[in-house]
Task: inverse folding
């Protein structure tokens, strides 16, 4: 359970709410802050990449996925790792088109 209301997981939850409200830019700032608190949470990288994509910042999203995949690999977080790898492949494919 999160002890600090301003912790990384609390920021992730808040960002999720902003995304649901169609406010990905607000989500991005909370997710970036979450990574300054704990840069080992692969779900934060996934959510940040998704939020950046939703904000039409696709190059930034690709960079976040590139950073997040090895972190998820190291921790054995296969679902976020596979999602990030898939999204990265699609972004790179779209960029070449």
Result:
């Amino acid at each position: 359970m999160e002890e600090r209301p301003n912790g990384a997981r609390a920021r992730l939850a808040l960002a999720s709410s902003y995304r649901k409200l169609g406010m990905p830019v607000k989500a991005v700032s909370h997710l970036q802050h979450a990574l300054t608190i704990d840069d080992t949470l692969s779900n934060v990288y996934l959510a940040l990449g998704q939020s950046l994509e939703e904000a039409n910042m696709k190059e930034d999203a690709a960079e976040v996925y590139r950073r997040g995949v090895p972190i998820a690999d190291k921790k054995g977080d296969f679902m976020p790792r596979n999602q990030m790898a898939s999204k990265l492949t699609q972004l790179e494919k779209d960029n070449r088109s």
About this structure: Residues 57 and 71 are 22 Å apart (CA to CA). The chain has five helices and no strands. The longest helix spans residues 78-96.
